[in-house]
Amino acid sequence: MDIQQIRNFLTLSEELHFWRTAEITNITQSALSRQIQGMEEELGVRLFERNKRNVSLTASGTFLKEK
């Protein structure tokens, strides 16, 4: 996990929208998704609940955001 992934995670945790976060961070939506999935795999927890319409933080995601 690098500092850019952490910054992107924090932006996504505020926006709760992958497309908007991708625009703000100036990366593609698919690259952002891969970064978040990589963080989740590295940490062994889900950080976000996702479905077609909504993105929300899990308890683990909230904990990471606060730290």
What does the model show?
The protein has helices at 3-15, 18-25, 29-43, 59-66; strands at 48-50, 55-57. The protein is mostly helical and 67 residues long. The chain has a single domain, classed as Orthogonal Bundle (Arc Repressor Mutant, subunit A). Strands 1-2 form a two-stranded antiparallel ribbon. Strand 1 (48-50) and strand 2 form a beta hairpin. Helix 1 crosses helix 2 (18-25) and helix 2 (18-25) packs across helix 3 (29-43).
What is the CATH architecture annotation?
A: Orthogonal Bundle
Strand percentage lies at: 5-15%
Radius of gyration: 11 Å
The mean pLDDT is 94
Spans of at least 5 consecutive residues whose pLDDT stays below 50 are none
Please give the CATH class.
Answer: Mainly Alpha
Strand tally is: 2
* Alpha carbon gap, first and last residue: 15 Å
Sketch the topology as an H/E string, one letter per element: HHHEEH
Report the principal-axis shape: globular
Helix count from the secondary structure assignment:
4
CATH topology category name? Arc Repressor Mutant, subunit A
Mind summarizing the main beta sheet? 2 strands, antiparallel
Strand order of the largest sheet: 1-2
* Secondary structure category: mainly alpha
By CATH, the superfamily comes out as Winged helix-like DNA-binding domain superfamily/Winged helix DNA-binding domain
Helix content: 55-70%
Number of domains: 1
